[in-house]
Hints:
24% helix
Amino acid sequence: MSEFKSQGSFRRFARAVKERHRYFYDDETREFLDTLMTTLPDRIEEAETGGLLWRAQLGGDWQIIRRDGEVVAEEPRPHPQVRMKPAADSAREGRANPKGIPYLYLATERETALAEVQPWIGSDVSVGQFQIKRPLRLVNCKTEDGLRRHRYFGGEPSPEKREKVVWSSIDAAFSRPVTPSDDKADYVPTQILAECFRSNGFDGVAYRSSLGEGHNIVLFDPTVAELVNCFLFRVDEVKFEFTQSANPYSVVSRSDAGT
């Protein structure tokens, strides 16, 4: 069985495909992808037919209320069914999919799906419940370290520990939220991994959420899950908690430095 050359193998791969060669790979990139595929047997996750997942979309719709043929009111309602799946001809760039190729992003928990769209207080969010239509084989990128960066110092660790670090880096890369200010080149490494998994017969990728308690699942074929229920929620509260992660520093003014 092949092994990763370094605990930084994913970082080297990501830098290479973002900065040097995106469509034709050098030997090191091909070797990384080949090694990655040899580690997959322990990372296969199966999703059964009938399983339920969640997807959220910002906003909602309005339903016109008529009485005796006259419009008397409008009531809020969730987005229509067609809005709850990505458009086949206008899919936006995502962490796993390139522009124009729609993937279906879902979550195992409703609250995770809500958090993933990064709503603001007072906003409406449509949340759909999707049912899986056939058995699925997923690549499970989730690692026990979660989203914490893990690295061994003092030389390269054992092959088992190198593999652990590489998959932890992959988990973190998929889990990083998509924001409007993102450089789309940052999506390239995970898009390549997703396409590699898809070309080897997998149906999707499971990875941790950095915004909720559950985990996310992206399906390469949006038709393998169908919408069965749709709800509309109003965001009442957004709460963040912080932990200091490094020592502070003090700024010394020039006048103080001279005394």
